[in-house]
Design brief:
One of its GO terms (cellular component) is cytoplasm. The chain is an alpha/beta fold. The chain has 15 helices and 14 strands. Strands 5-4-3-2-1-6-8-7 form an eight-stranded mixed beta sheet, with helices on both faces. A six-stranded mixed beta sheet has the order 11-10-9-12-14-13, with helices on both faces. Helix 1 packs across helix 3 and helix 11 crosses helix 13. It is globular and about 60 Å long. The structure holds adenosine monophosphate.
């Protein structure tokens, strides 16, 4: 079965076509600047050069049509006819409390995703546009949705409730949901597989640290706690997001600086984090380079980033009454030798013995970076959210055919 994975944003759409017989990627690409007259489609076939096309793409229906045109192109396409696409899987950021696993798209599911627009106003409406666009272009193809929040629906109420008036939870569903669930789920399963132990038997902390960043405590094979909350702003310091701050700062700053709600929201989401502290960049590579060149603010940003990851690891080790395995993933977690070292050396009391040579290896596979015999094992596990979406979609469609 060939499965098309789609991640639709408001003005962009990323895609990957999988052959599920061996889970190989046949082609991938992205459509950018949807809604503008110079939209760009970048198509990356396997073993053939990248193709770029600039044209007017005013909506998601046209964007999906262009994707299908690329995939079926006789010269650089990956399939000869669109009916080879047997299923489509979508990334959906917010599944609220309604979805604790991936599901096939039905009228009811679409209604529920719409009900959640309030909780993810920047994401869920765009995902719905992607789903409708596929319906228009491939009306007979089953679709599935895979939610960023679903994996964390196993959190106990001690983890997911905020200590604020409970009427706010009842009326508006204000609670912690957590995000990056697809990644935490994927890397925790990969790590267990690497260790050749059942996931249920490992107290694990997964650190998805990239531009956005979150940690998850995984107990009995399930998400027990995670650092992002009702929105992806809570928790760790990120590229441009503040992470945890005293909530009283919001009204205080609004008053002192005469900021509107939108402005303060933008400050915390887009102008904070590493960018604000370093004054240089939100990008860990650039911050690290500046730090190595002696820039004090870059060093402070790096140290604060590492410090906050350390604090969450410590908190989750306490929450689970121990930790056996720590996993690093995403752009920073998979690539930053310096940051992994700074974090691990600062929490050696947990029983972590970092192996510098292993940490410094630049490999793309799942691997251990602690010494043989280290009580807590630290792994680097490349994440692959698209593959998990393809797998879930494949399994749901296969099940629906047999039932
Ligand atoms: P992501 O959001 O997962 O794509 O991660 C993006 C982040 O990963 C950016 O801050 C990048 O600077 C960082 N990153 C990617 N490659 C490296 C690298 N080799 N060393 C340090 N940071 C990296």
């Amino acid at each position: 079965m060939k499965v098309l994975v789609i991640n639709a944003g408001s003005s962009s759409l990323k895609y990957q076509l999988y052959d599920m017989r061996d889970e190989s990627v046949l082609a991938s690409g992205r459509v950018e600047r949807i809604g503008m007259d110079s939209s760009i489609v970048t198509h990356e076939p396997v073993d053939k050069p990248e193709v770029r096309n600039v044209s007017e793409i005013l909506d998601h229906v046209t964007a999906v049509k262009r994707v299908i045109d690329m995939l079926t192109n006789p010269e650089f396409g990956a399939i000869s006819h669109l009916n080879e696409i047997e299923a489509v899987g979508h990334r959906v950021v917010h599944g609220g409390e309604a979805f604790s696993s991936s599901v096939l798209v039905t009228q009811e599911v679409k209604l529920e995703i719409r009900r959640l627009f309030d909780l993810a106003p920047l994401h869920n409406p765009a995902h719905m546009m992607g789903i409708s666009a596929v319906e228009t272009n491939l009306p007979d193809v089953p679709q599935a949705v895979v939610f960023d929040t679903a994996f964390h629906q196993t959190m106990p109420n001690t983890s997911y409730l905020y200590p604020i008036p409970t009427v706010l939870y009842r009326r508006h569903k204000i609670r912690r949901y957590g995000f990056h669930g697809t990644s935490h789920s994927y890397v925790s399963a990969q790590a267990a597989n690497y260790l050749q132990k059942p996931l249920e038997s490992i107290k694990m902390i997964t650190c998805h640290i990239g531009n956005g960043a979150s940690c998850a405590a995984i107990l009995d094979g399930k998400s027990f706690d995670t650092s992002m909350g009702m929105t992806p702003l809570e928790g760790l310091m990120m590229g441009t997001r503040s992470g945890d701050i005293d909530p009283a700062i919001v009204p205080f700053v609004m008053n002192k600086e005469e900021l509107t709600l939108n402005e303060v929201n933008s400050m915390l989401n887009k102008h904070s984090g590493m960018l604000a502290i370093s004054g240089i960049s939100s990008d860990m590579r650039e911050v690290t380079e500046a730090m190595v060149d002696g820039d004090k603010n870059a060093k402070l940003a790096f140290d604060m980033y590492a410090y906050r990851v350390k604090k969450y690891i410590g908190a989750y080790a306490a929450a689970m009454n121990g930790v056996d395995t720590i996993v690093f993933t995403a752009g920073v977690g998979e690539n930053s030798v310096a940051l992994r070292k700074a974090i691990c050396e600062g929490i050696s009391f947990l029983g972590i013995e970092l192996d510098d040579a292993r940490n410094e290896q630049r490999r793309k596979d799942c691997r251990e970076i602690t010494k043989e015999g280290s009580r807590v094992k630290v792994l680097v596990v490349p994440t692959n959210e698209e593959l998990l979406i393809a797998r879930d979609t494949y399994n749901l469609v296969k099940q629906s055919r047999t039932s």
